[in-house]
Amino acid sequence: MQKNMYFDYFxxxxxxxVTEGDKxxxxxxxxxxxxxxxxxxxKGRVVNVLEGxxxxxxxxxxxxxxxxxxxxxxxxxxxxxxxxxxxVKVGDEVMVQVAKSPIGTKGARLTMxxxxxxxHLIYLPGTPFLGVSRKITExxxxxxxxxxxxxxRFAGDGLIMxxxxxxxxxxxxxxxxxxLRGLYLTALEEFKEASVGDVVHRDEDVHVRLLRDxxxxxxxxxxxxxxxxxxxxxxxMKRAGRRGMVSLYSGAREMFDYFGLxxxxxxxxxxxxxxxxxxxxxFDKTEALTVIDVNTGKFIGNTDSLEDTVFExxxxxxxxxxxxxxxxxxxxxxxxxxxxxxxxEHRTAVVEALKEALQNDRAKCNVSETSGLGxxxxxxxxxxxxxxxxxxxxxxxxKGSGTVLSDTYIAFKIKIALKNCFARGYENxxxxxxxxxxxxxxxxxxxxxxxxxxxxxxxxYMIPHRTFHEEHFTVRGDNSDVLNLPDAAKLLY
Length: 493
Known about the structure:
Elements: E1 3-10, E2 13-20, E3 23-30, E4 41-50, E5 55-59, E6 66-69, E7 93-100, E8 109-111, E9 116-117, E10 121-124, E11 130-132, H1 139-152, E12 158-161, H2 170-193, E13 199-201, H3 206-213, E14 221-224, H4 227-239, E15 246-248, H5 255-258, H6 261-265, E16 272-274, E17 280-285, E18 289-295, H7 306-328, E19 332-337, H8 344-358, E20 365-367, E21 375-380, H9 387-391, H10 407-423, E22 428-434, H11 435-443, H12 448-452, E23 459-465, E24 473-477, E25 490-491
Parallel strand pairs: 1-14, 6-8, 11-12, 14-15, 18-19, 22-23
Antiparallel strand pairs: 1-2, 2-3, 4-5, 4-7, 4-13, 5-6, 7-8, 9-10, 10-12, 16-17, 17-18, 19-21, 20-21, 22-24, 23-25
Helix pairs in contact: 7-8
């Protein structure tokens, strides 16, 4: 399957995409004003230590203090009067790395166990741990890589061999290990001179991170819409011996539109995703978890068996759920409500299909077995806001509820305002409102009964506006003998 990468820049923001075949599987927006600071290292100061939570809070130059758990603080000696459980105290200046960017109302998750990520290695200064990527499962290969890591390590430090490590020679790995250690030593020097809140090491831009984290042997083409970034990536690919896969896009149309990516990016914002067989998925996100509901929709199956129809739909849904989790960058707990199946072997097969599809995800995922209610739960490691948050802002009208008031309730609110107006002694009232709401009031004769009874003798003029938001209206009283009204004003009934 052809796998391509695309990078484009606009106003300082980087738009990055990864496709498999003709399907978009990853989208990243690295915004200059966004809160994705994961991987950056700061000089911070401990401002609060909470023994009961086994954690500390650290000021590090961001609007919200960062959360530093006891498990993310290395053991230390000779630091003076420190907690019996937490090796920091209020006022300590510490070098902290952002493990998880601020998300919603929560501050960043910090760690003092630093890591520097390369193409083939992860260097762990001060952490004497050797490891191998979990995606490398062959025991003999893992043992060989651990032995290699032992030769490459620096005294007292650790290394993790990444998925691409087996494809690199010893000289390349040794050079990368020295380079990563150099980044750490530079950060140490920066830390000495820095003020609290300063960045002492900044992680790479999104295009470098993607090229670093993705196996380039699987990539067919890298298309770039910025000449500056093209030159940078071309230099990186020259060193990797893959110069030929990089191209500079110079077409008349916008690159994301030309390659059909923009239409697929819009999928991220839709709560409903249609499957190829007529079935569909519905996404419902809360702060704590994401719920995905599977529906058969128009799919009626190719056999006379309802069980087979449901099973076929669920298998297709499992693959799409995995793609959407990766595309939307969902994190935390994800609950999938597959359609009920009678046969245990079918339920098992659907869970296995989901696990297999999630293996293509670079984020760590753990799938649980089907619950007694037929729900399948899996977790996906979250390091920053999902793409829906990156691509949208809170609606200034609904304030995040995702809904607006019904026509009937808006009319009822207008009625309340009119009654208050007449209660203040006015005989005439002028209402300015949305044209669609006005049409509903007239068509359904919403105020006719009141006009014939308690408002008999009152005059209500309504002025419809096409540009008014549906929920916006004004009501004012006027007892003048002659009213100065626009031609659009209508006397109610």
